[in-house]
Design a protein that fits this description.
Elements (H helix, E strand, L loop, with lengths): L6 E4 L2 E4 L7 H26 L4 H15 L13 H11 L4 H16 L10 H12 L24 H7 L4 H6 L16 H7 L15 H4 L9 H10 L16 H14 L10 H12 L6 H9 L14 H15 L1 H23 L5 H8 L1
Antiparallel strand pairs: 1-2
Helix pairs in contact: 2-4, 3-5, 10-15, 11-12, 11-15, 13-15, 14-15
Amino acid sequence: MLSRATENTVCGLPCQVTPDPFGVDLISKEDKDKKKKKKKEPRDRDRLADGGSKEAREEISTEIDAVLSLPGSNLQKGDFDSGVRRYLGALRGCQNGKQKVKDAMAMLHHYTAQKMRSAVKNWPAYLLTLLKRFEPGLLSKGAGKGDRKGDDSRRPPSAAEAAAFGLRGVERILATPAKVPVKLSEGPPAALAAAAADLQGLVKASQLAPKQPETQVLPESWTEGRQPLLQEVSHALSAEIIRSPFTGEALDLQEALVAPVATALGTRNAAPEPKSFLWRYAQGVAACRDLMDCPRALAAAQHAKVDDLADLSEDASSLQGVQAISAAAQEKGGAAAAVAGVVIEEVGLEILAETLRNPDVSPAINAVTL
């Protein structure tokens, strides 16, 4: 065998030995390249798993907080687990990434606003599925609870299709809810026919029916029907007439007691932080009380010919009724928008009366009023 020296002798004559093209030097170089690549890939994967750079992660967190604070939002912070944030981070890294993240968050809000929390077993997985349909092929695998096999038969719009249907970024929803949104970041839509069936329930603000006056939907004597419950509240407070300690004038129970409860019911994820005791109590009691126990709330919806409450299951809670009428008012307008506040007030009055019926509450109230 020939030596690997650069010069050798064959038959007594000097000659140059050509290095083996598959020699040790070349293999060593390939091995070094592979090792460098392997060292780099984990760092890239870790960076993507965290949602990208620090700036990108902060932007994504801001967008998440913004969509959670939208009226009617069903989403919670825990729904945005590591898998969902990782996909949003990959979306942020695309061209026009900032706008795409805003559009994706707007799509998530619109597509989940009508859903009850109990209707989806795994919210992170559901959000990740929506994002993969919105912008497919960004990541081969996910991370966290949001990763799952399988598919959802309901297909949300892609970024291009969202542009055609006028879905808006979170900031534009907050700033100009009644304006037709500008075109999004991508080009013309590719499959509008397929997306139309899925977006049938998503009505643009510019297409909402104008809000009807309450007097055209409900009879003029509607508020008089609250008197029995208001009298029960007065009796529970050990006084036929509740007077202001400052002016001595009679207090309007509707304004002083019922309205704050109704406001707490109608304010969901947008409640102030920290959440008030009234907010927690009203939401908790409404979630435990059947909607069927609030007949005037159901009657108000029937007067307005709004079927959203009647379509709920028989064991639906009062809180689910509040959520349903709020969503109908936001998406349909017209009569639904006219009676939404009335329905929520009726539920609030029922909750107030039910609270004062509690024997553990009455002694404390009597002690204060004496």
